[in-house]
Every structure is written in structure tokens, then in C-alpha cells.
UniProtKB/TrEMBL annotation:
Family: In the central section; belongs to the 3-hydroxyacyl-CoA dehydrogenase family.
PANTHER family: TRIFUNCTIONAL ENZYME SUBUNIT ALPHA, TRIFUNCTIONAL ENZYME SUBUNIT ALPHA, MITOCHONDRIAL
InterPro entries per the UniProt record, alphabetical: 3-OHacyl-CoA_DH_NAD-bd (IPR006176), 3HC_DH_C (IPR006108), 6-PGluconate_DH-like_C_sf (IPR008927), ClpP/crotonase-like_dom_sf (IPR029045), Enoyl-CoA_hydra/iso (IPR001753), FA_oxidation_alpha_subunit (IPR050136), NAD(P)-bd_dom_sf (IPR036291)
Annotated organism of origin: Paraburkholderia caffeinilytica
Designated name of the protein: Fatty oxidation complex subunit alpha
Classification via CDD domains: crotonase-like (cd06558)
UniProt keyword annotation of DNA-binding present: no
Amino acid sequence: MQTLTMHVDAQGIALITLNDPARPMNVVGPAFIDDFIEAIERVATDPSIVGAIVTSAKPAFMAGADLKHLMSLFDAGVSRQQAFALSRRASVEMHRRLETCGKPFVSAINGLALGGGFELCLACHWRVIVDDPKAVVGLPEVNVGLLAGSGGTQRLLRMIGVDKALPLLLDGKSVTPQEALALGMVDAVVPATELLPTARRWLIETPNPVRKWDTKNYRLPEGAGLLSSSLATTYSMNVAKVGAKTFHNYPAPIAILDCVFEGALMPFDKALTVESKHFARLMSGPVARNIVRTNFVNKGLADRLARRPEGVPKFDARKIGVLGAGMMGSGIAYVAALAAIDVVLLDATQEQAERGRDYSRKLLAGAVERGRRDQASADAILARITATSSYSALADCDLVIEAVFEDKSVKADVTRQAEAVLQKSAFFASNTSTLPISELARQSDRPERYIGLHFFSPVDRMPLVEIIVGKQTSETTVAQALDLVAQLRMTPIVVNDSRGFYTSRVFQTFIHEGMRMLEEGVEPALIENAARFAGMPVGPLAVLDEVSIELPWKIVMQSREALGDAYDLPCSYDVMRRMLDEFKRPGRRGGGGFYDYPEGGKKRLWSELKSAFPPVAPQPSVDEAGKRILYIQALETARCLEEGVLTHAADADIGSVLAWGFPSYTGGTLSLIDAVGLSTFIEECERMAAAYGPRFKPSAWLRERAIRGHLFHAVAGHASEAVA
Ligand code: NAI
């Protein structure tokens, strides 16, 4: 047995200690399941063993499923039957066997126990947990598009009741030991030193425990099905809630509701079969695969700097300069100070710089007020930020991040002033959201040390940084920029230089398409709802009002100036022009845009919008409008890959989900194409090109990929392609 040890003491109590030597945390994978089944059989069949305690040698008891293993199953195209068999092995051969083997099992939960780890605890006859708020427990499988498929849903509902179980299963929320005790998810909370003695005492006192659902005539106290009046309300309320939250793009919450509803009506063993069936459906469908791939496996690889050039010594930023203490600069200064980096925050005047530093002061004061941080640590963090208007303060910085106005000449000016005092070894980064990095680098005395670090707003809540590699940027600079992002505990993607890079460029297609629909006569409410039903966090018109229509307009003007006739005006050019020139409605901060913002009231679509852009008949279906919004973004992403702006499909997916909230059920912009199937995607784009315009026309490169059956990610035997 590799993943656990078993020691039987003089009283015949077996101590099973989970301790996977290959991993920092114990996880549920095939090796563990084999080992644990073997351990259960020994306890069950060895007459000298009276019962078993399960604990862990690691700080955590056990995390959930081994996501890497899950991914390998997804990539191998796991079928519904195979997924069902996997669930049954863990559910029946492992947990149910443990529960019915005739010997008592206690879990002594010494740390966090989540997902499959907590399902194991639920299967044990008794649970004692350490009194440590970090030792959280729960069933968060819904967050990866799955459900607890080893008996978790069925045991939880029978232990704590449908009412309390459903929110935990549907939100995937974990709870502290004290909360778990109050809910009935664990039986005792004790200090660490008492964990094993308490477990041992219970075992000796309870030689033949039987779970209540295995007793004769067991019924759920609150009843089951729709005949139970209280449950009928619970189910219908939750169905409505799930619908409103997910727009039915995520099958897991509904599968969980099904499992609980059906399972509560059945004897326990039958209910386990139902659970496995639902689990198998989720596991063999696209959504769990997409979420696990992008949000967990590939994001994890990005966080561990999978894209870092090799052979460059690790870089540790001690002190950074931030030029421009506006919205972005002050946010960057805050996250750097939080990461224990000293910051010189520079603006044109001392007063403006101080105002930028006040941003951190405000956030830190909030954290102190909410009890998340003590005053001393807040003071220490704030003390790391020096506000100044003097360039000489930058002399010993390891790097500088420029976040002044989006204006080439202002950027050139501050770059020259900073580099005049900056040590030669330091690198220089621009936080520009649209200006080509290679062009900005021309103003630098160290173009090979010049790079784009594109943060998102608000910096402290947006975990992504888009690293933009200019034509001359050296590998050392890329490696050091990646090290900095890791130091800031953020997720990097690496892209090549182009106008708008990757994220801004694709995001623009979303808002332009929304405005274009308006111009074509699509009802504004339909546009907004279709985007949200498709999974976008906010409709395109509402987003435009937030960022202001002036922003994309400025990008269009700059691009036209830079590229002249080579620049194709966006499909929404006239809408922007009319909103700004004719109606003087730039957005929320400008007094209103596509929406009105009545004081003290809720925003509503601008009352004149329909006379400005009259709706036509017939209207497109919500599905068609939603598809149009997602496909234009996916297509533009494919173009970025074709042009080499993106080099890895994983960057595209992670960037789209984290930067602008492209729906995670799709796995991101390129995973969406894989899930739809490239040939189908191309056919649909052709159809849309005929209906809506040539911007939907797929390129020869994309067609060629379709002919070769070349997916962006590996699935079912297709070769994985990381590099385009
Ligand atoms: P902002 O207008 O809030 O801040 C710019 C700051 O730069 C101001 O405090 C201004 O006083 C200062 N500044 C201007 N000229 C200066 C000079 N010569 N010397 C020193 N300081 C000077 O702008 P924001 O939104 O923070 O944007 C900054 C940069 O970040 C821009 O390049 C923008 O494109 C980019 N960006 C903005 C995002 C956003 O959501 N606002 C997102 C990502 C990037």
C-alpha cells in the first residue's frame, strides 16, 4: 500500500494513516482507492481487528479528487459507462463496504477534508474533528462541474436533512469544524491532542454501529418527494435559484437536485446507484472537462509558471517603481505591498501620488475593520509604499511598471525620465491596455528589457496579468516578469505583441457585436439577456456604459491614426459615433449611455434607445443572439492563435475566463470551439458571415485545422497541441 499505512495496536484497533508520499496533499485517485479497499478488507476480515481509525499524516486530512487524474480521464474521452464504473468502485466497493462490513470506522479529521476526502469521513460511522478553523470540510464538487459521486450526496442529506444539505451541495461551500458540528456533519470537535484518544474511546464503546439508514423501516424524518409540503417548497425554490444563477449552462446543480430528490425517495443502495448515474453523466459531458481543464489544471500550470523560459535565475523583486498613481497604478502598488515588495509610487505631483497611496490605506482600513487584519500588519503594508513625484526615488528599483495616461507621448516622457535614474539591471514594464509594446519600447534605452504587464481593474480583485512580449523583449525579461507575477500571487498568461494584444482585442469583439445588433434592430433587452443567458457576466451594453463608450472609441481613433487605410472600422462604428456625437451619452459616469441611471433607483434601458435604434421584426432567437456573441469572441481568439499573438491554447482559455468573464462552462474561447467541434463551428461561422457580415468568415488556416481534425486540446486520442 503506497498511499497509506496501517498499524494495528494491542487492543486490535487499526490506525489507517493517509500519507501519499508523492503529493503534498492526500487526494482520491486510483492508487488510493486500491489501497483503501485493501485496508477495509483487512479490517473486515481479520478477526483480531475490532475497528479502525482513519487519519492523515499530513497537515490536511484529504483534498478531493486527483484533478490531474480526472483530466487524463477526460482526455481519454471517458464514456458514461466507464464513469459509472469509477463511481461505483468508490461508492460501493470502498465506502459502502466500509459502512456495512460489521466493524466500526471512525474518521479522526486532523485538517481540511474536502470532496472525496470528506465523503470518506461521511462513510465512517463516526467523525471527530480537530478544533481548528482551518480544518474546513465540505463537498465542493459542484465547482468543478461534478457532484459528490461516492455516496456524499446521499449520506449528507440523510445526516443533516435536505434543507441544510442542498445549499452546501449546490454552492460547494466548505464550513469550519464548529459550523460542521452545528449542522450535524461531524460528531465531535476536540483539541488536536484529543483527536485520536476520542476516536479510540468511541470505537471501544461502540463495537457494532449501524447507520440509521440501514435500520429497518428507516424514513427521512421530513418525508420525501413532493408529498412533503416543506420539501416541495425547498425543491421548487432551489430549482428556480439554480436556473437564475446558471441559466442552465451548468448541469451539475440540476443533477445534484435530481440526486437529492430521487435519492431521498429510495432505499440507500438504490439511491447510491442513482447518484452514480448522475455523476457519470456529468463526468462524461463537456462542462466538467472544460472547467477542470481551464480553471484548475491549466490555471495551476500557469501559476507554477509553466511558460517560464528555462535557464534564467529566479528573480525576486524587492523594490518596484510604479509610474502613475491613478486607478491602475494605485491598485498595482497595493498588491505589490501586500506581497511584501517595497513600492515607489510616483505621479506628476506629490499630492496625486499621496492620493494613490490613500487607495491602499482605504483598503487596509476596511480589512482591519472587518477583522481580517490587525492594525500593525496594515501599518506595515502601507509603510512599504512611498508616494513621491521625484524620479530619483526610483534609483534602486528592480523594475518599473508604468501606468500613466494611455498616451504614447506621455508614456515616452515618463519612460525616459525613469530610465535616466534606473539601475541598468532593472526592467521596464508598461500597463498599457492597447498600445503595441514594441512601439513603446522604441522610447526605451533598454528595449530588450521592455515588456507589457497588463493588469486588470480592480487590480486587487482581478487575478490575471497578461504579459506581452515585444519584438525585442529578452527571455530573461519574460522570465523575470513571470517571477514577479508569481510573487504577486496572480495568474500570468504570455502573449505576443499586437494592437490590443489578446484580451483587449477579443473583448472588443464582444462589445462591438452587441452594439452592432442594436443597429440591426435587435431589441436591446434581448441583446443583454442573450449575452447573460449564454453565460457572460454582464450584457455588452451594460459593460459599455461602465467602461464608457469613449474607451472603445478612443481605441478606434488611435488604431485608425496608426494604421490608416489598413484599419477596418469596427462593425459598431456608427452606433458609437451616434451615442457620443448625436445623443451625448457616453456611459454611466457621463450621465447615462445605453441605460438611464435614476438617482437612488435601479438602472434601466434608456427610454429613447428604441427610437434611436428601432427594433425590427422578426427578432432573432435568444439562442442565436447568444451564440453570435460567444462565437465572434471564439473566432477572434482563433485568429490570435493563427497570427501568433497567442502561442498556447491554454493561455487563450485562462485569459478569457479570468480577464473578462467568458463563461467557464465553455472552458474558455478555444475550448468552446473544441466542444462544439471545429467543423460545426466553421459551418456556423459561415452561416453567420452570410447573415451578419464578413467578420464571421473563418480563415483558410482554421478550415485546414478542421480538415485535419486538429483540436486545440487533447480529447479522446487526438494529439494535444500546445503550440499553434
Ligand atoms: P488614470 O487616469 O486613473 O491614472 C493615470 C495616472 O497617471 C494619473 O494619476 C495621472 O496623474 C498620472 N500621470 C499622467 N501623466 C503623468 C506624468 N507625466 N507623470 C507622472 N504621472 C502621470 O488611468 P488608469 O485607468 O489608471 O490607466 C493607466 C494605464 O493603465 C493606461 O495606460 C491604461 O490604458 C491602462 N489600463 C487601464 C485599465 C483600466 O481598467 N482603467 C485596465 C488595464 C490597463
